[in-house]
Specification:
Blueprint lengths: L25 E5 L7 H13 L3 E7 H10 L4 E5 L9 H7 L5 E4 L7 H10 L5 E4 L2 H4 L9 E3 L3 H10 L4 H8 L4 H11 L1 H5 L3 E4 L4 E4 L4 E4 L11 H14 L4 H23 L6 H16 L3
Parallel strand pairs: 1-2, 1-4, 2-3, 4-5, 5-6, 6-7
Antiparallel strand pairs: 7-8, 8-9
């Protein structure tokens, strides 16, 4: 029998009465491209809503200006060009040590030069959240101290990149039982999980795996199967991680809260008309309620 996450599993980070800016974490989001400008904005705003003090988005300059027009709360690092590439590597590696967590992948694209940059960034000794196109560019043997947040298609690509046999990939992807799928994943990704990583597989029931735990989340609804909701989830992961919640707890908090806000909006909108930016707006209501339990 599956035991699902409940409110008791959620731990919202506390702030000290005399805390100053930066004490609750700083997040760097790396992503965006000419084709995708909204993904990094949603991720950055979600990280702030999770409670971290500071978010900087490093992205192509036109994307950055668009984000600045959208929100006064996000700092942007404007990088030349329409896509991120190895020419930005030196600058990014110089600023990453100033942040507690790096989120990479949202809207970043899969150009060859971009993939090379991703592979360089993920090797740096910093807590990381790997999402979207960045998941497609790496293998499980390249990651340490990371949360990856794939949907089922991204998971398939990640497993293939990792050299998993096609038969094992097919059986896992097509397994209908959530329990059996999680068991298969735990075996296939044992090296990955033993290397200080966590996977949050998005679905109608989310599967969260660490080296020693298998957890399941059922908050959320079909209305969340639309563009941007995954970026919000990744941003929440980064925001909690920057505050010191730890890899597993950050994934647990984010999956539960993201889905719970979706359920709140389903009732509020009386249907599936809500969008990812609506989730951003109502995160504060859900976290406020959960904080009373922590």
């Amino acid at each position: 029998m599956i035991q699902f996450l409940t409110k008791k599993d959620i731990i919202i980070p506390n702030r000290k009465p005399k805390s100053k800016k930066g004490d609750s974490g700083k997040t760097l989001v790396i992503g965006g491209s000419r084709d995708y400008t909204g993904a990094v904005a949603l991720a950055g705003l979600a990280a702030l809503r999770a409670g971290c003090d500071w978010v900087t988005i490093a992205c192509p300059e036109k994307v950055a200006w668009a984000i600045n027009s959208l929100s006064a709360d996000i700092v942007t690092k404007k990088l030349h060009g329409e896509y991120l590439s190895m020419r930005h590597h030196k600058l990014l590696t110089s600023i990453i040590p100033h942040y507690d967590t790096v989120l990479i992948g949202n809207g970043i694209g899969l150009r060859q030069e971009t993939q090379l940059l991703i592979k360089k960034i993920i090797k740096l000794p910093v807590l990381k959240v790997i999402d979207a196109d960045a998941i497609k560019a790496v293998s499980m043997y390249e990651l340490k101290n990371s949360i990856i947040t794939p949907h089922i298609k991204e998971l398939e690509i990640f497993l293939r990149n990792s050299g998993i046999a096609e038969s094992g990939i097919y059986q896992t992807i097509n397994e209908k039982s959530i329990l059996k799928r999680s068991q298969r994943l735990h075996i296939l990704l044992s090296d990955f999980l033993c290397n200080g990583n966590v996977i949050l597989l998005k679905g109608s029931i989310d599967i969260i795996l660490s080296e020693n735990r298998r957890l399941y989340n059922k908050t959320g609804n079909p209305g969340m199967a639309k563009a941007g909701t995954g970026d919000v989830l990744a941003g929440l992961c980064a925001g909690f991680l920057a505050q010191g919640s730890g890899l597993l707890q950050s994934a647990v908090n984010s999956a539960y809260i993201n889905g719970l806000v979706g359920d709140l909006l389903l009732r509020k909108k009386k249907g599936y008309s809500f969008i990812a930016s609506d989730i951003i707006g109502d995160i504060k209501r859900v976290i406020k309620g959960l904080s009373k339990i922590s």
